[in-house]
Design goal:
2 helices; 4-stranded antiparallel β-sheet; globular
Length: about 140
């Protein structure tokens, strides 16, 4: 009986570790930064209260810096492929218009990936103030 109980506890622990996130950082509204296994997988995700445990990926890993105001979210990403470290020699930039719901078909007008120069031009074109900066930065 002790072995069965120990086995059940072990299985329950394994299931819990597979379904929990190592990083689950709420940003604004229904937008989160999440990583299932390690910081290299840190992604910008959307999670509505009625989504259960599902977090839909908007920008895949490795997202390492974000900033937001009431209208926009900006993000920086280093490309990441599973089992490889992020390529920190490349930085991609994104702009997302924040809305109450998210449409994964249109990606709510997600702009990017962009180079730094493209990002600067696009944010000025959209009228995004210089006061919106990358206020959250993650180091792996």
């Amino acid at each position: 009986m002790k072995i069965q109980s120990l086995f059940l506890i072990l299985i329950w622990g394994l299931i819990q570790s597979c379904t929990s996130l190592v990083i689950n950082d709420h940003l604004v509204g229904n937008y989160y930064l999440t990583a299932p296994d390690d910081g290299n997988q840190l992604a910008l995700t959307y999670h509505a209260p009625d989504d259960g445990g599902t977090y839909g990926i908007i920008i895949s890993g490795t997202v390492f810096a974000v900033g937001y105001n009431k209208r926009y979210l900006i993000a920086k990403q280093h490309p990441y492929e599973f089992a490889m470290p992020p390529d920190t020699t490349i930085t991609k930039y994104y702009i997302l218009s924040l809305k109450d719901s998210f449409d994964f078909r249109t990606m709510n007008g997600l702009i990017g990936p962009m180079t730094k120069n493209q990002f600067i031009l696009k944010r000025h074109e959209l009228g995004i103030p210089d006061s919106l900066t990358f206020t959250k930065e993650y180091k792996n």
